[in-house]
# Entry
Amino acid sequence: MSNKNISLIPKISIVVPCYNEKDNIEALVKRFSEILKLPGKIGYRDDIEVVFVDNGSTDGSDFIFKSILKNYTFGVHHRININKGYGYGIKEGLKKANNEFVGWTHADLQTDPSDILRAVEIIKEEKCRKDIFIKGKRYGRKNSDKIFTFGMSVLESLLFCTKLVDINAQPSICHKDFISLAPEAPNDFSLDLYYFALARKLKFKIRRFDVYFGPRVHGNSSWNISWGSKFRFIVRTVTFSFKLLRFLNDQRMELKRMKTRNFILKNHDNN
# Structure
């Protein structure tokens, strides 16, 4: 992936996967409208697009999105009929993204949409380089959740021999070309690990910034509801981790073969 600088005024598409979040939708869209409204003018910023993915919801979210988003130019609504996982929803949303930088964040308002604006400033600071991966780093969480995250961070860092801390923190933002380089992303919560670990292995510049992680305003988490659900999450993530390690090793071997072949062909042409 070329690191040639693109426009120094970055345009970003943010995917927000929503599963049975009907009680959050109005507040979520309103919060985005507050941060994207042009000061002193009518209308909204055109450098940030928000792709709201109704990820197979069964609670009437589809109707709410359609009735609300017609009033907001920054929002795109994409409906998935059957829920196939958190990662699947993000991947489908990324396909609908129109801008040069893309990312994703939560729909439950535990992280503030204004965090996206901080990520925009980081992209500007880095002169819109393509080999950058931006990720939030959470504070304000319960001690039990911090212990769980610490354990997963240590485990994954040891497995991948690189620093992987607070893997599931949001938002996550990168250049769209990075997404096209990584087509094998999983359909579940391991998607965050996949892109973070891949960015580390490709030696991208990683920028982290603090984000407040508060309590859910409405509803309950679809997975973080008990230590049993945490254990199942660990099993799925570790299982995927070994698959990802094999994939990354295969990719490195293929890259070495390509470099060797190109070296041989170049020397052959010189002779």
In short: The mean pLDDT is 87. The longest helix spans residues 227-270. The beta strands are 12-18, 48-55, 75-80, 101-104, 132-139, 172-175, 205-212. The chain has eight helices and seven strands.
